[in-house]
Write a structure and sequence with these properties.
four-stranded mixed beta sheet, five-stranded parallel beta sheet, about 20% strand, alpha/beta
């Protein structure tokens, strides 16, 4: 149950359209639900504004569907990330209206209530087209939790004029998520241009010396641009959630 639905319920109790007993029945649902393989936090939406997110890696398709069913029963919807093709197909066949993004490996079922909209726009910027899977994960996540999202794609430092030609879009964002592999230099460039928070996401894109994303991770951690924050390698989800909290503050 989301904060908005609880607020609406309490308002209806106050104006007499809903009885206190009916409200108690709604509020008495257990905050936790134990399955054989998971413990679901049903009060995550009440505390944080969005339900617990299902992380797909390491879970079977059947486990993911069962967790999704329990979340959907509360009318809060759900977001699932890092899904296999089998898991995506199972969710698509089980839930009407679900939004599957194969590139991002996500599935999103909107809830009964839309999450509160953030104040501004989250801009997701990619250095190269190869970074798009991580970028799409960030875009889907940020949109699911109630943000306006825009993208700048393939504007890395190898052709810096591509970025500078879109500076109006860059300067109008409330938060910028910068996704880059190779040398990870784009985060420092953008961090030196904008006055808003910059969240850098190193990706595992790059040749051997990139060490699966370690090289851009270290470069971003050592950025000389003030105000650049770094999440883990390929963690588009984490960057989007951090950006959303900033955008909703």
């Amino acid at each position: 149950m989301t904060r908005e639905r609880v607020r609406s319920l309490l308002t209806r109790v106050a104006d007499g359209t809903v009885s206190p007993d009916h409200a108690l029945d709604d509020l008495a649902k257990e905050p936790l639900e134990s399955l054989d393989f998971a413990t679901i936090d049903h009060h995550r939406a009440l505390r944080q504004g969005f339900p617990e997110v299902i992380y797909g890696e390491g879970k079977t398709a059947e486990q993911i569907v069962q967790i999704a069913e329990r979340l959907a029963e509360r009318h809060d919807g759900f977001l699932a990330t890092r899904l296999s093709e089998e898991s995506s197909a199972r969710l698509a066949s089980r839930f009407e209206g679900i939004e599957i993004n194969k590139l991002a490996r996500t599935a999103h079922l909107p809830g009964l209530d839309s999450p509160p909209e953030g104040r501004g726009t989250i801009l997701v910027v990619t250095a190269g087209t190869s970074d798009l899977p991580v970028a799409e994960e960030a875009v889907v996540t940020a949109g699911a939790v109630g943000n306006r999202v825009e993208q700048l794609i393939d504007v890395g430092v190898a052709g810096i004029h591509r970025l500078l030609s879109r500076k109006d879009q860059l300067f109008s964002a409330a938060v910028v998520v910068v996704i880059a592999g190779m040398d990870g230099a784009l985060a420092s460039v953008i961090g030196g241009l904008v006055r808003v928070p910059v969240i850098a996401v190193p990706t595992s894109v790059g040749y051997g010396a990139a060490f699966g994303g370690i090289a851009p991770l270290l470069a971003m951690l050592n950025s000389c641009a003030a105000g650049v924050t770094v999440v883990n390698i390929d963690n588009g989800f984490g960057a989007a959630m951090a950006a959303s909290r900033i955008n909703h503050w």
